[in-house]
Structure formats: structure tokens, C-alpha cells
Amino acid sequence: MAIRLGSTVINCTDLETMTRFWCAALGLEPASEADDFRLLRGPHVNLSLQRSPVSARDQMHLDLYTDDQEHEVDRLIGLGARFVRHVDDDPADDWVILADPEENLFCVCAKPADEVRDPGAGSAA
């Protein structure tokens, strides 16, 4: 079992403009082309863009990747996180939204073990 920071997710209203900007700024390449979500990959970092109404409080959040989602969610709740909801409509894209002790949201994403240990492996949420 393992957990790692998989991506920082930025909420935005204009996905195409933000994709061009962040790819140029950080030397990233788009790794997904969904209408409402874009993963940008680089050799040392992932950055994700998510189409969403933007509010000052929720402009970005962390995605944590783990190969043992239930264990890590329980562990993080034990450390003071609060369960918000589980999104598992698509078996290939399963995440739990938690809030830290100051109510900042973050996601715990279920991923295969090799992707958790090797940031360059597989696809990401």
C-alpha cells in the first residue's frame, strides 16, 4: 500500500486557454482531452485542470493517489479529515472527497499500485 501526491487540480472556466498557458509555462503535455478535465503531464510534475465555476475558496485542490483507498481514507479521517462524498460512477475513475481540518477539500483517488509508486506510469484521474 502507498499514497502519493498525484496532481494539483486548478478549477477554471476556460479549459483551452489554461491548457495552453500551463503547458507553455511548465513544459507540460496534455495527457487527456475530456471536455471538463485535462491532465497535463511533465517529467517531474502533473497538473490537472478542471472546468468548474470558480470561487475564491475552491480554486485548487490536491489529488492523492493510492492503491488502498479505503485504508488511506480511514487513516486520513483518523488524522482529522472529514468525509465529504465518494464518487465512483466510473470504476476507472474512483475518488473520495475529504476536507482537511480547516475545510480545504482534497481527493483520495484509487489507482493501481504501479501508478502510485511510478508517477510516469498509466493514466491519471
TrEMBL record:
Keywords: Dioxygenase, Oxidoreductase. SUPFAM superfamilies: Glyoxalase/Bleomycin resistance protein/Dihydroxybiphenyl dioxygenase. InterPro entries: Glyas_Bleomycin-R_OHBP_Dase (IPR029068), Glyoxalase_6 (IPR041581), VOC_core (IPR037523). GO terms for molecular function: dioxygenase activity. Signal peptide: none annotated. The keyword Oxidoreductase applies. Gene3D superfamilies: 2,3-Dihydroxybiphenyl 1,2-Dioxygenase, domain 1. The keyword Oxidoreductase applies. Residues 4-111 form the VOC domain. PANTHER family: CONSERVED PROTEIN, HYPOTHETICAL FUSION PROTEIN. This is Glyoxalase/bleomycin resistance protein/dioxygenase.
